[in-house]
Amino acid sequence: MSDKKIAIVDCNNFYVSCERLFNPKLKNKPTVVLSNNDGCIIARSQEIKDMGVKMGQTLFKLDDSVKNTMHKFSSNYVLYGDISDRISNILKRFSPQIEIYSIDESFLDLSHIPQNELVEFSTMIKDEIFRLTGIPVSIGIAPNKTLAKLMNVISKKQSKYNGVCSYWDGINTDDMNIDDVWGIGYKWKKKLNSIGIDYVGQFKKIQG
Question: CA-CA distance, 178 to 170, in Å (whole number)?
């Protein structure tokens, strides 16, 4: 196992969070951001996810009863890009190495931080981003990017971690769904399910 300590900082529901900065009344309200032609949903608040609305869902196919409860926004990539740049500049204060993976995700090398201080240090990063930008983030930390992504999934799904999850806290990933693994999309999930692999623990066994 590598001696590296890699963190991924992932903005929560990023486009929606950006829109909420300028309209705080949207907090806890079902909110979506739409594609350029306003045809498809490209970002969802947690409330929308809880309603069972899928990413990429075509808007006109939704029942009016669902559609009418949503707050809908056309995408504003200039705004999202500006806020993303601000977050990247904040992250550069905390790590000598940063890799911008997407508009709402970045990897940080935290190998300079002692293992027992990783959660505290990452929580400081999370709080500073929120203080300076108003954007909530979740952070996963592990020896490599794939595991860091898994820790990030846990940090979002399990509230007890308060948005920061470290591999070195003895996290058991065996019961996680196989498609939570970075790089396993819908097609690979179907193939793996067809041979009886539904969870990360089962996948580990075939990897030796």
Answer: 19
- Which of 140, 111, 108 lies closest to 123, judged by CA? 140
Report the predicted TM-score, pTM, of the whole model to 2 decimal places: 0.86
How many Å apart are CA 118 and CA 2, to the nearest integer? 16
Q: Print pLDDT tens along the chain (208 aa).
A: 568 999 999 999 999 999 999 999 999 999 999 998 888 999 999 999 999 899 998 988 888 888 889 999 999 999 999 999 999 999 999 998 999 999 999 999 999 999 999 999 999 999 999 999 999 999 999 999 989 999 999 999 899 999 999 999 988 777 778 777 767 777 877 887 888 878 777 776 665 5
Angle between the 14-21 and 77-91 helix axes, to the nearest 10 degrees? 100
Nearest to 125 by CA among 2, 5, 24, 205: 5
d(CA 78, CA 82): 6
* Closest residue by Cα to residue 9 from 97, 76, 78: 97
Buried/exposed code over 176-194 (b: 16+ C-beta within 10 A; e: otherwise):
bebbbbbebeeeebeebee
